[in-house]
Request: fold
Amino acid sequence: MLSRPKPGESEVDLLHFQSQFLAAGAAPAVQLVKKGNRGGGDANSDRPPLQDHRDVVMLDNLPDLPPALVPSPPKRARPSPGHCLPEDEDPEERLRRHDQHITAVLTKIIERDTSSVAVNLPVPSGVAFPAVFLRSRDTQGKSATSGKRSIFAQEIAARRIAEAKGPSVGEVVPNVGPPEGAVTCETPTPRNQGCQLPGSSHSFQGPNLVTGKGLRDQEAEQEAQTIHEENIARLQAMAPEEILQEQQRLLAQLDPSLVAFLRSHSHTQEQTGETASEEQRPGGPSANVTKEEPLMSAFASEPRKRDKLEPEAPALALPVTPQKEWLHMDTVELEKLHWTQDLPPVRRQQTQERMQARFSLQGELLAPDVDLPTHLGLHHHGEEAERAGYSLQELFHLTRSQVSQQRALALHVLAQVISRAQAGEFGDRLAGSVLSLLLDAGFLFLLRFSLDDRVDGVIATAIRALRALLVAPGDEELLDSTFSWYHGALTFPLMPSQEDKEDEDEDEECPAGKAKRKSPEEESRPPPDLARHDVIKGLLATSLLPRLRYVLEVTYPGPAVVLDILAVLIRLARHSLESATRVLECPRLIETIVREFLPTSWSPVGAGPTPSLYKVPCATAMKLLRVLASAGRNIAARLVVPRELSTHPPQPLSMQRIASLLTLLTQLTLAAGSTPAETISDSAEASLSATPSLVTWTQVSGLQPLVEPCLRQTLKLLSRPEMWRAVGPVPVACLLFLGAYYQAWSQQPSSCPEDWLQDMQRLSEELLLPLLSQPTLGSLWDSLRHCSLLCNPLSCVPALEAPPSLVSLGCSGGCPRLSLAGSASPFPFLTALLSLLNTLAQIHKGLCGQLAAILAAPGLQNYFLQCVAPGAAPHLTPFSAWALRHEYHLQYLALALAQKAAALQPLPATHAALYHGMALALLSRLLPGSEYLTHELLLSCVFRLEFLPERTSGGPEAADFSDQLSLGSSRVPRCGQGTLLAQACQDLPSIRNCYLTHCSPARASLLASQALHRGELQRVPTLLLPMPTEPLLPTDWPFLPLIRLYHRASDTPSGLSPTDTMGTAMRVLQWVLVLESWRPQALWAVPPAARLARLMCVFLVDSELFRESPVQHLVAALLAQLCQPQVLPNLNLDCRLPGLTSFPDLYANFLDHFEAVSFGDHLFGALVLLPLQRRFSVTLRLALFGEHVGALRALSLPLTQLPVSLECYTVPPEDNLALLQLYFRTLVTGALRPRWCPVLYAVAVAHVNSFIFSQDPQSSDEVKAARRSMLQKTWLLADEGLRQHLLHYKLPNSTLPEGFELYSQLPPLRQHYLQRLTSTVLQNGVSET
Reply:
């Protein structure tokens, strides 16, 4: 095998490789194919085919000289129809004028004439080498304007001056004695005395830039003067305003560097002319005016626009006059002294153009026209020097300064800008996102480079900026304040959602193994690519953790820097289990934090600011360990090390710390109450096998007397809103502790049941029942709707500064008071109260009826009604997923308490129906991490007869009566809908088993969620929930078993078991019929078109399934539900349906199956006919009449059994010519007959009759010809019955055998039109189509 070329090999090696390749005769990796002629012709068809297309380099055959440039061939083209050329313009001349080919340019070059150029021979010298240059030679004669030119440049300039014999061609000689202040110009010669602009004192001597250099001597001056005269004549013919406009247009089009060169060239020539005049006229007056813009000088009195033209400045008004004696001031460069002038006034923005944003040193956005004093340090010498503030580009440039103070200042300002942007201070005043702009510009790696700085101040500001970027303000405060809520320690990972979905096999894998496994592509990707999708992963790939450990371990920074580093580490740990593991495994990082900031003994710290956090307990460091331990059970086991803490005097604790302490006691109590797990063989359960608890019941059994008084004291403040909000999460934590305490107590085998039952009875009578009767508790239920995210979906909008690569909760501005996480939110207290009531009702059955009285609160009923009502769902963001999870906890606990109460005594019918609707809505909304709640809802509330009061209140009988009213007695007798509903209620346990089989989550996820909700802490793998990309169940979950059955049948060519297929399909149809009849709001999220597509899957699963009598009755009942007058208008087959690429593809497959296995089944035919209504896409009708004509013979559905009105197929008249021709063809050929397909026969006759007698004057010639031909052929038909139907059709009528009414005699207008056409046919014969 031939080797590939390597770097460093020469051309000889490449030629050697080529010879080896050609000698080997191997096939090339790329085959060259010659494209055909664009014109489509075969002009080159007579050429022999190329035998070898290889590109072989042959150095020996290359010519010595490059090929000559041949002018491009003349181009001939004809104008396109849409762009006609003027009649007086030649197309060939237009093409040549716009030709950009290189030959068109090179052929116009005039060669320079060098015949008259003098050739200077070298001057003979008597020495062998040139004389050595001495620096001290002729220093007195050195020009003062030489500046910093090199010695070589000075020698060349001196030689040119010595060889010059006269003034240059373009030298300007000024007038003698012009008036002071006038613009210098030359006295006009007789030849060009008229070369003066009208109304101006400015005249021109001759050409300035065009000198004719390069032409023959006798032609150079003449050509230059001719061009100059043409320019002067054009200028004289223009008005002054036109000259100004033309100058501005030229300045806008030219390169600024070229304009500066031309101005400097003109300025140099004027200075040369003035010097010559002074030498000729010593002591004579001269004008000290610099002509920067020659054309503008003629109209000096005209007003100028400051932003577009530079003002004439004879001399800069400098605050200090430079002296030649000063160092490096022998040559004054005025353009470099502009910055010493006073700032120009701030320009007022007169247009809507966007301007560059500028910020103050505190990160505030400055207005474009703000005028601030210069002592604030906000003015600099960059662009727009008059505007105060620094742009992001200038701050980026300043971070690379050699001065450490400037680097620190730039990083500080950027940190302030990020903090204010995340707080939403900029709003819509900026175009785009500041964070996205900074991340795209590489700000992340700029911070990483700054962390490697040698200056401590730069490192501190870089860490501060890193915290401002990563840690969104408000996120940690929100998570800390809700840590004591019901399952408040569980959080979603703050990482971008993965685009690739995991396989089902990966769902069975434990989360710890999933986190440790990384794909090879991810490990090999560079940090910028990782950061583009995930900022945290990109940072971790840059060795950030070792650098932070070095800062903590070696530099000993101040308290602010330490807190910033700990905040960054907490944000990294919240990202994912993988990031938390990397933080834990960083060498000496956790050891340094524990040793320095969590010491076992320390000296008491006095009041006031702490000079150093080292060797002092730090709460943020303990929070870091808690967040790390929450990421995974293995991390927690590695962090737990027995340590002995020294005792210190207790200090007052805040309410939040009291709640956190109570939460810790709750977890310890749950751990003490966990029973040892049995040996489990299943691999998924083995990964979650419980470890023995180190906490015993005797250690926590005495905590209740300490917590219960605290709860009693806080509940007294319930009637005082201000005080109640002050105690915050303390009563919530107390209620959760009592629930965990009684749950653990009831699981102790050595305790007496009578003891805990009596204690529960005491707590209920003394505390809970009086609490339930308080009016203040009713106000909390009433405020649920105002703080609910489901009831106010617009309250959750994505944050303005939320780049997809850096996920945050978006709580920078704080949560409103009336929100789920606000200070007045009733959700945490009511959720904890419902949790305690469920625990007591589960253990003490006798208390269930008394405690369930809380469900009768009007506020709760109204809240459920609004949650069940159809409406837009909240947009799924990190914050909305977090908030909705807590809201779903309250809904589930209320439903669980209602289910316990319903098992003991019947619920009111209205309440039972409401609870059932709420359970159905909650089932389709639960997010990942709530798999246990999904399983429990399927087991209890959803399929419980207690929540279907219609079965005993005349629901089936009402359905039968509705059938008789809507369908009438003309239909074919079939099993009534009431009978089907009654049978479905009897089969409800079988229906529940079917859905538990197909809708239950993966077993590993279910066990992990079960351990979390049951409080089995030893079996909890992690407190990080799965990514909330979408709900656990789709919105059409009632059809989910049927869809899976259809996919299994498609993947199994041999077919499925008839028993399994029949059972699954029947249970699904029964449950969908129950929902359609009694819970229609549960299917409002499923479009009618999607329901129709799911019903069609019943016929596609098997060739015999639809023949079963139960399936026939259920499908007919569901089809009748879809064809109801209030549902049929919403049937839209053109919209995008979930799970389908397109409905026409499904319909084509449906037609194939119908044609193969239907055998004229009427129900099958009804589903085929339903999408053929006139308002649906013509593609569906073309598929039947064009590709499946044979299916027409099997569509024998009678007109009386058509589920919709016949007018839905005939109105409005068909306007598709291809379909009308297919209608006519099938009628004439006999493929469509009334006894085979009565419905479509009536439809085709109606549309053909409407077409042949329509006289629309706006029709095209093709349509008119087709209409005339079709009418002629109809008149000449041999089938008298078809001819009579097509000519005498009147109106559709499904009660008649034909399906339509006929005219006994044609109307006069139609009769006249037909006679006129038939007379033409008799004269000329039948026209051909």
